[in-house]
TrEMBL record:
Keywords: DNA-binding. This is Two-component system response regulator. InterPro entries: CheY-like_superfamily (IPR011006), Sig_transdc_resp-reg_C-effctor (IPR016032), Sig_transdc_resp-reg_receiver (IPR001789), Tscrpt_reg_LuxR_C (IPR000792), WalR-like (IPR039420). Residues 7-119 form the Response regulatory domain. It comes from the Bacteria. GO terms for molecular function: DNA binding. GO terms for biological process: phosphorelay signal transduction system; regulation of DNA-templated transcription.
Length: 226
């Protein structure tokens, strides 16, 4: 931290939230907001080296912050502000390099405390998130999954796109029974049951990126054109 002043960068896509944070932090003489931008690309383009990066991850992808936080941690101390839905791990966010995790229900007082704590190199987790963090710390480690074969990984990606076994079979030139066998193997290797858990686990393990989609290839059409 630079003397008694904390230099802060805000990364938040929602304009109202971003301007509100900038106004609150700028009102404290101990803080100087050096940039307030909508995304990581804009922040990196500005070339700032703040003491604290207040980062609001995009809402559309719960897994994206781990990669983003790790990248931002090379530019400053990261304080993540997010709603933290069920699939968003507080522990993984900290492991990625964040020094603080707070919710968007945070009070002005706690926000100022969190910024000062993180700026000084300490850790701050909102009281509302403490039970989540405790549960994640005590959760049994998932066994390392067996490697998926190329065709199994391709099947997994089509499943993540929402295709049925029959649709996947047509696109891959296989029988539906073969696709069903692939799906059984995938579930066994990843140790998951339903489709939602399958997709989420694949993203968590880095087998799929959040938002990744295959380019749909039209299935062959039988018959003749009159």
């Amino acid at each position: 931290m630079s003397g008694t002043i904390s230099y802060i960068a805000i990364i938040e896509a929602q304009s109202l939230v971003r301007h509100g944070l900038e106004r609150v932090l700028s009102a404290d003489p101990r803080h100087v907001v050096v940039s307030a931008v909508t995304d990581r690309g804009e922040f990196q383009g500005a070339g700032e080296r703040p003491d604290v990066i207040l980062y609001g991850p995009p809402r559309d992808c719960a897994e994206e912050p781990r990669e983003s936080v790790a990248e931002l941690a090379g530019h400053g101390k990261v304080l993540v502000m997010h709603d933290f839905p069920g699939s968003f791990s507080v522990l993984d966010t900290i492991r990625a390099g964040a020094l603080g995790c707070v919710t968007k229900e945070i009070s002005v007082r706690e926000l100022l405390v969190a910024v000062r704590t993180v700026g000084a190199g300490g850790y701050h987790v909102s009281p509302e998130l403490a039970p989540r963090l405790h549960a994640e710390l005590n959760r049994p480690a998932r066994p390392e999954p067996r490697v998926l074969a190329r065709r199994e990984l391709e099947t997994l990606r089509w499943l993540a796109d929402g295709l049925t076994h029959g649709q996947i079979a047509r696109r891959m030139g296989l029988t539906e029974a073969t696709v069903s066998t692939y799906v059984k193997r995938i579930r066994s290797k990843l140790d998951v049951g339903n489709k939602a858990d399958l997709t989420r686990t694949a993203i968590e393990l880095g087998l799929l990126r959040c938002g990744e989609r295959r380019t749909a290839v039209p299935a062959p059409v039988s018959g003749t054109v009159g």
